[in-house]
Design brief:
This protein is α/β, with parallel strands linked by helices and 457 residues long. The chain is 55% helix and 12% strand. The strands form 4 sheets. The chain has a 5-stranded parallel sheet, with helices on both faces. Strands 3-4 form a two-stranded antiparallel ribbon. Strand 6 and strand 7 form a beta hairpin.
Length: 457
């Protein structure tokens, strides 16, 4: 029978064709058609694999992708949006963090443990959505028991008395939901954690050496109940959270999360070019090759021990990315090169792309600033000439300083709107239009002064 992923993953992306996946990515990322096409095919192949018999599906490994291109052209955003579209656990990690492996930093298996943690959070949140209403109802009942303790009813008591007690309780429930009891104070038992510093250790660094203090000394971390006085809304929230945890089977969540990570997880290995080095070199190149050899079994397929059980990495999709200004993909060890069969080169961005980035995507920067100022009651508008001028300034700064791609637009817009952002709450004129003249007045001198441009933009 076919391998089946959790229902939420299948229904979201399973029915999308590669062309539709690209169309979804186009809503958030400008250009880079080749990269979008590659990730769309990779995602669609995952869905195709699910429909195969298990013995054949087991043999089909994901076709990992290597993205080559300068910073700020959309590599990370494409991978992140793809994961969101597929509702897959997604982790971005810088390969350069593992350069000093064995001395400082983290071992490469930590990326799998982090991905599983994200998977657990994702599945838990989905389960919470299913039980939230029931948990709220249970929390209300517990709070009503405190506000209106149930009176013992004698066996021979008239049914009307029981009905009256129930009616009183329901009136209290209506008042609770209407907020008319918010000012009242109640006492509830609140569980407080013991030894929070050890909790941090047990959750992170100790796990790196496969020792879990919470398993060894369970009583140390259980915490104690403490009687606390809270206002009704705070008590209701605490009790609702407590009820949610009771209604969720964490063992089931862990199993589902591990399954989702194994079958649908995506890891984005950024700065892969920073560890591109081969034997025969001096200095850090040897350690760079060591890092590549550490990463290799994870990408090839191995089993990693996590606190939620053993996790296989055979079918996790790896998307690596790097600028490769100094090194080139062939500088990676051959075994690792072979694990990234799909290579796509992303194009550097220019003025035309900047204009589109400022206006077209759903989360376009111009739309973000308009929405932010709208919270102050200010109607902010940009003319077409102003948009083109902003893009022109961003391209000019990239050419004369470090080319950081679309990220330059953030710094340019922050400087451009500095006055309005600061004075916004006090402005008498609530309609502000940004035109070409305004852009030139705010940015021209900074862009002309190269030293100042390097410092500010």
């Amino acid at each position: 029978m076919p391998i089946l992923l959790p229902e939420t993953t299948q229904t979201s992306a399973g029915s999308l064709t590669p062309r539709q996946i690209v169309a979804e990515l186009d809503k958030h990322v400008v250009g880079q058609a080749a990269a979008k096409r590659a990730v769309a095919i990779a995602l669609r192949n995952r869905m195709r694999r699910q429909k195969l018999a298990p013995e054949l599906a087991e043999e089909i490994a994901p076709k990992n992708i290597l993205m080559i291109g300068p910073t700020g052209v959309g590599k990370t955003e494409i991978a992140r949006r793809l994961a969101k579209l597929a509702q897959s656990p997604f982790l971005k990690v810088e390969a350069s963090k593992f350069t000093e492996v064995g001395y400082v930093g983290r071992d490469v298996e930590s990326m799998i443990r982090d991905l599983v943690e994200l998977g657990v959070d994702m599945v838990r949140e989905e389960r919470l959505q299913d039980v939230r209403a029931k948990a709220r109802q249970n929390a209300e009942d517990r709070l009503l028991d405190i506000l209106l303790p149930p009176r013992p009813i004698a066996p021979d008591e008239e049914p009307s008395a029981r009905d009256a007690q129930q009616q009183t309780r329901e009136r209290f429930r209506e008042q609770l939901r209407a907020g008319r009891l918010d000012a009242r104070i109640v006492e509830i038992d609140v569980r407080e954690k013991s030894f929070p510093s050890l909790e941090i250790i047990a959750g992170s660094s100790v796990e790196e050496v496969d020792i879990n203090l919470k398993d060894m000394l369970p009583g140390l971390f259980q915490g104690k109940n403490k009687r606390r006085k809270l206002k009704v809304p705070e008590a209701l929230e605490y009790l609702a959270t407590e009820e949610e945890q009771k209604l969720i089977d964490m063992d089931s969540v862990a199993r589902a999360a591990v399954e989702r990570v194994e079958q649908a997880g995506i890891i984005f290995l950024d700065e892969i070019d920073k560890i591109a080095g081969r034997e025969g070199s001096h200095g850090p190149d040897v350690s760079r090759e060591g890092v590549q050899r550490d990463i290799l079994p994870i990408v090839e397929g191995t089993t990693v021990n996590t606190k939620y059980g053993m996790v296989r990495t055979d079918h996790i999709l790896f998307i690596a990315a790097g600028a490769f200004h100094v090194s080139k993909p062939s500088d990676l060890i051959p075994e690792l090169q072979g694990r990234f069969p799909i290579r796509v080169e992303l194009e550097a961005l220019g003025k035309d792309e900047f204009v589109r980035i400022l206006t077209e995507p759903r989360n376009a920067l111009v739309k973000q600033y308009i929405a932010l100022m709208d919270t102050e009651g200010i109607t902010l508008a940009f003319t077409d000439d102003a948009i083109r001028k902003i893009a022109d300034f961003a391209q000019t700064v990239n050419e004369h300083t470090e080319n950081i791609g679309a990220r330059r637009l953030h710094t340019v817009l922050e400087k451009l709107l500095d006055e309005i952002s600061f004075e916004g709450p006090d402005l008498l004129e609530k309609h502000v239009t940004i035109d070409e003249a305004y852009v030139t007045r705010m940015l021209a001198d900074i862009v002309k002064n190269e030293d100042l441009s390097r410092y500010i933009l």
